[in-house]
Amino acid sequence: MEYQKINITATINAPIAQVWDAYNNPKDIVNWNQASPEWHCPSSENDLRVGGRFKNKMAAKDGSFQFDFEGTYTEVTPHNSISYVLGGERTVDTTFTDENGSTKMDISFDAEGSNPADMQREGWQAILNSFKQYVENKTS
């Protein structure tokens, strides 16, 4: 199946090592992995290696809805890039680039077919913005 690629980006005012650690450590993931204040991430598991899996529970704070966001890593290059597969087909590629002490993150993902592409872009960007805010607040 052919998927539409969606790209999002953010520049985080922190060095790559700090950004990488906060992006991949379950103790950090539960603090930033939500698209809006009405949502949270009550649990996270991450086996960051090729063939390893991750699973993040995403839940509405009012208890009305929850789901597991999970995938399998296909490529992991520390402090540089991560690729994984969602549902056995959709791919996600994330790169980390040093920009004079800040870190630029670029994420490219295959859109799923049940929601409009703009909605998916906005949701993923909101999560990335939450990550940026978390890391910058943590390091300041």
TrEMBL record:
It holds the Pfam family AHSA1. It comes from the Bacteria. Residues 13-136 form the Activator of Hsp90 ATPase homologue 1/2-like C-terminal domain. InterPro entries: ASHA1/2-like_C, START-like_dom_sf. SUPFAM superfamilies: Bet v1-like (SSF55961). Belongs to the AHA1 family. This is SRPBCC family protein. It comes from Sphingobacterium kyonggiense.
